[in-house]
Design a protein that fits this description.
Blueprint (H helix, E strand, L loop, with lengths): L2 H10 L2 E2 L1 H6 L25 H4 L78 E6 L5 E4 H5 L4 E8 L16 H4 L3 E10 H8 L7 E6 L7 E4 H4 L4 E6 L2 E2 L9 E3 L12 E7 L14 E2 L5 E2 L8 E6 L11 E10 L5 E7 L7 E2 L1 E2 L9 E9 L4 E9 L8 H8 L12 E4 L5 E6 L2
Parallel strand pairs: 1-22, 2-11
Antiparallel strand pairs: 2-3, 4-5, 5-8, 6-7, 6-11, 8-9, 8-10, 12-13, 14-15, 15-19, 16-17, 16-20, 18-19, 20-21, 21-22
Bound molecules: ligand MTE and cobalt (II) ion.
The site of ligand MTE has 20 residues, from loops.
């Protein structure tokens, strides 16, 4: 593939053949990382004023402790923010923004930049005005105040929330140039709250009760049916996230956490849990959040988020600026079916794979951070990552997924992402056939 073909392949059609890239002579291979290779040597005769001169910050007072009673990121980090895609945002009160996962590290999503999705806007609901009703097929219908919730035994659990529509715009081909937009409908927080089971047991579920219907206090109500088995297993009514009160946009003062299951079921501003003998078949589980296949039929009750991973850096928003040599390749992996056990990284579009290093052992239904410590020779790469979870499931390629699901679905696209990293260090969202 010559320069011209490559350019037209990128701008004209995002789908490109893997072989074309390899013919272009990208020589690839993991090299040992030389210790300290990135550190700047202090050359004689070129003194660095940052070392030799006294700097303003060392010769005057800094801010007092009262300057930031509640802290925000330093102004130099002002672009690490939620962003939306204007053409997806017909109306901001019924829309979505995206977590800047390209710029984050570790696994916990800072609350202030965790994506939001609202069907009818984020509402302001004071704790005093909060009520949670449990009704339907129960011995004793109950209404809890926020203070009541605080008196039940609590659990802590770190969980990812992924919108079922995450990567939904990528079904037909590579489209959005940034991991924030292609995989950023996800956040991972430590929740503190009351197991839903405890509240249901307080009300006493009747033997006919087989489902719960959960809804929020906002105008959309976002009602969803959840099998009683899941509701009694690990669902949490959360009142804190990352140690502090939920943010308004994440459901203050209480939201549902449904570990491993699609974000739409994580009802915010939770106001009612009705025990029923069958699912309600609400709008959000019939015309929406079902996956239309090539023949026009739809998959239903696709609650679990299958294993997925993505390289967050380098990526289109995180080009390589330092040239060849030691390069930290990093990303995130997660599975709604349990813990991540392994992540593989490819630099040649899935032809060969290397096992990445997990920063910490995978935690069930939480994000896992992976790294590949790599010595980049400056040639182009087709970067991919592939997640494995504890059930033995391996993240599929987009072609494998499309062969089964077609291209009509918006939801549950967990296919392997490819970044074309050019010798300049710039990266682009592309696809390779597989
Ligand atoms: N709950 C209510 N009450 N209203 C909503 O609009 N949106 C749902 C879910 N719960 C929604 C809701 C969807 S589609 C998703 S992906 C998650 O909330 C988003 O949660 P977040 O805004 O905390 O990211
Ligand atoms: Co959603």
């Amino acid at each position: 593939m010559d320069e011209k073909e490559r350019d037209s392949a990128v701008s004209g059609s995002p789908v490109m053949g893997r072989r074309g890239f390899l013919r272009a002579g990208a020589s690839v291979g993991a090299l040992a990382v030389g210790a300290g290779a990135g550190a700047r040597a202090m050359a004689e005769g070129t003194p660095d004023p940052l070392i030799t001169e006294q700097q303003p910050w060392a010769s005057q007072w800094g801010d007092g402790v009262d300057a930031t009673p509640y802290g925000l990121p330093i102004r130099f980090e002002g672009d690490v923010i939620r962003r939306n895609v204007p053409w997806l945002t017909a109306d901001v009160v019924s829309s979505i923004n995206f977590t800047p996962i390209h710029a984050l590290d570790g696994t916990i999503t800072p609350t202030g930049c965790a994506f939001e999705r609202h069907h009818s806007g984020a509402i302001e609901l004071a704790k005093e005005d909060y009520r949670l009703m449990i009704n339907g097929l129960v011995e004793t219908p109950l209404v809890f105040t926020y203070e009541d919730l605080e008196r039940f035994p609590r659990v802590n659990r770190t969980l990812f929330l992924e919108c079922a529509a995450n990567s939904g715009m990528e079904w037909a081909g590579a489209q959005l140039n940034g991991v924030q937009f292609t995989q950023g409908m996800i956040h991972n927080m430590q929740y503190s709250g009351v197991p839903l089971r405890t509240l249901l047991e307080e009300a006493g579920v009747k033997p006919e009760g087989k489902w719960v219907y959960v809804e929020g206090a906002d105008a959309s109500s976002n009602g969803r049916s959840i099998p009683l088995e899941k509701a009694m297993d690990d669902v949490i009514v959360a009142i804190k996230a990352n140690g502090e009160a939920l943010r308004k946009e994440h459901g203050y003062p209480a939201r549902l956490c449904v570990p491993g299951w699609e974000g739409n079921m994580w009802v915010k501003w939770l106001r009612r849990v009705e025990v029923t003998d069958e699912p309600v078949q609400s709008r959000e589980e019939t015309s929406k959040y079902t996956d239309t296949l090539a023949d026009g039929t739809s998959r239903k009750w696709t609650w679990v988020m299958d294993a997925k991973s993505v390289i967050t850096s380098p990526s289109p928003q995180m080009p390589i600026r330092h040239g060849k040599g030691p390069l930290v390749i990093t990303g995130l992996a997660w599975s709604g079916r349990g813990a991540i056990t392994q992540v593989d990284v490819s630099i040649d579009g899935g032809k060969s794979w290397q096992v990445a290093r997990l920063a910490e052992p995978g935690v069930a239904m939480a994000l896992t951070r992976f790294y590949l410590d790599f010595d980049w020779d400056g040639s182009e790469m087709l970067l991919q990552s592939r997640a494995h979870d504890e059930t033995g499931y391996v993240q599929p390629t987009k072609d494998q997924l499309r062969a089964i699901r077609g291209e009509n679905s918006v939801y549950h696209n967990n296919g392997i992402q490819t970044w074309w990293v050019k010798p300049t260090g710039e990266a682009e969202n592309v696809e390779v056939s597989s």
